[in-house]
Amino acid sequence: MEKCKDWNRGKLTTLLFLFQVVFIVLFALFVYYDKSADGREAKNSLDSAKGGNDPNSNEVKDFYPMFQDVHVMIFIGFGFLMTFLKRYGFGSIGLNFLLAAFVIQWAILMNGFLNLEDGKILINIKSLIAADFGAAVVLITFGAVLGKASPVQLIIVAFLEIICSSVNEYICVHHLKVADVGGSMLIHAFGAYFGLALARVIYSRDIEDSTKEGSNYHSDLFSMIGTIFLWLYWPSFNAALATGDDQHRAVINTYLSLAACCVVTFAVSNAINKGGKLDMVHIQNSTLAGGVAIGTSADMMVEPWGAIIIGSVAGLLSVIGFTYITPFLYKRAKIHDTCGVNNLHGMPGILAGIAGAITAAIASTDKYGKSLYELFPARAPANGTELADIQSSLSGIEPGEGRSGVEQAGYQLLALVITLSFAMVGGTITGFILRIPFCNQPQSNNLFEDNPWWSLPDAEEGDVLVRMGDGSENSREMPLKEKI
């Protein structure tokens, strides 16, 4: 038994060191500071005689506050949101920490390889925000398999999923030229349906037979910490990469959508539950669905009342999902969704894609002026005097494809379909890879349990003894501190 445990520990150690060495080599070969972070650039000099300018004009001043908000969401918001499992608190917080730190390095590399400039990956503050977005994709998937995957499996998932999501994003943004400022399609829907496909493939009867899944009073309170952090900072998530009035709208629209979603979630939870009581699962998760649902159209002119409607529908949809759709998928399709990511990220992500397509279809210069072509670059004319007139006002506009609003809406919906397809196929393939014995698929008593992976506090009075092993004479009882 000890040899087996040493080998399992050795697998995770070997895998992490191997990847970290590879990351170091790839960073050394390809990654360079962008001009805005390069001390050799004349414009970054403090000496105006050398061509330098005001150091406070550096773009980090504009983007760092929202970057830090997103960073808090990734490491505190997502981490604490998943602590509701009463026996998996260390895994929820700790593995969230590990996965995010792993992914931000790999995501910088993958995004960079798909956008090389003279064979180099140039890194700046926007690269860090994009890397955090990549971490969000994987952490959403983590929620679908929470308590059912070993640390070795989760690292493999993170590595493979970032490849799939980066390629999908490149296709949708650079080739289809869709707008998705808050990543509701490319981050939330992708992560959710990758996770659901993965959960289906690694499903076993042990999950159904396990009695350890569930929360208690204190674990639900810890989870609410994550909810509140995510709810507060979600406007920054949706607005982080927008600029100017687009960013301002993204903050306003997300703020209103979240507020409406929260109110509707409480109302529907109270109405739908027996005895007219509120369900903490709904409050922890469905109150956030408005942030997802508004994400694609956050920087668009949906109008304040439109943002409130989108948030209200998202809250209703999410609570219904937790109450009826999650049990249906588990019973009929054997899709066990631990955190209910379909209800917080999946269906609201689809709703966001549809809302974004509708808003794109009716977008016009009457509403946006020439900034329409900043939001939808493919709608710019391919050439001619009209393009020249636009470029005289907005120097960053490049020749587009002359799309109409309806055509842009079609591309928005096509991106949603491609994203869902990429996610489900990628999740299914990854699931079969995880079934290889090397990956340490948790079985029986190891499900929804910290003990197999973490050193827990010594037994004290009131601790619960958990039987570990196969029931043979080599099995032993380990103390697990009960959270009551």
* Element pattern in H and E: HEHHEHHHHHHHHHHHHHHEE
Strand content: under 5%
Quaternary class? single chain
Count every helix, treating DSSP H or I runs of 4 or more residues as helices: 17
The low-confidence parts are 459-484
Binned, the helix content reads 55-70%
Amino-to-carboxy terminus distance? 31 Å
Note the overall shape.
globular
Outline the biggest β-sheet: 2 strands, parallel
Lateral arrangement of strands in the main beta sheet: 1-2
Structural class: mainly alpha
Number of strands: 4
Mean pLDDT across all amino acids: 91
User: Using only CA atoms, what is the Rg?
Assistant: 24 Å
Strand and helix layout:
Elements: H1 2-30, E1 31-33, H2 60-81, H3 89-113, E2 121-123, H4 125-144, H5 151-175, H6 184-201, H7 205-209, H8 217-239, H9 244-272, H10 280-285, H11 289-293, H12 304-333, H13 341-361, H14 365-368, H15 372-375, H16 385-393, H17 405-434, E3 464-468, E4 476-480
Parallel strand pairs: 1-2
Antiparallel strand pairs: 3-4
Helix pairs in contact: 1-3, 2-3, 2-4, 2-8, 3-4, 3-5, 4-5, 4-6, 5-6, 5-17, 6-13, 6-17, 8-9, 9-12, 12-13, 13-17
